[in-house]
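Side project, low priority. Logging it here so it doesn't get lost.
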Amino acid sequence: MSTSDTAVFGRTGLIAGMTAMGIVVLVSNIAVNYPINDWLTWGALTYPIAFLVTDLVNRIFGPGPARKVVYAGFALGVALSLWFADQRIALASGTAFLTAQLLDIWVFDKLRRQSWWKAPLVSSLLSSALDTALFFSLAFYATGLPWVTWAIGDYGAKLAMAAVLLVPFRAFIAVLPQRFQRNEPAADVAG
């Protein structure tokens, strides 16, 4: 890959990450209003994709560009959610999203040199716990809705999704050019 190809790959990758993040947040903020049962909403199945996006960007480009994707995804997701979803959910989601995603980036970066699966799995499990606690308490406290059981079900779904999403994480990394498969971020692309 030439230097100009690498720069295009970097810009395209970051823009794709930012767009994906905003869409995942919006879809999840709408889907959380639709319970599957007393323990689970549809948002529990869509939101973990945000951690996949963050972890892929972090693996390829490093924590700095991953934070840029999170900030842009946060701004786009909250703006769209304020327009298309309930305001309380949008604000709770924004708070939980930003806090949890920044924790995810930090934990992933600390574990990036270990086995390929450790960083995405551990960072997703820890940040999902924080996200779930913040989101459900802020979005649904004192509403009369069964938010505690939704939170428990949501976290269970996030645990399962963290394991399932290891498959696309590994597959995506495997098809990248060799220089982007390293456990070190591609600093020359991130700049």
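Brief comment: The mean pLDDT is 87.
Revisit when time allows.
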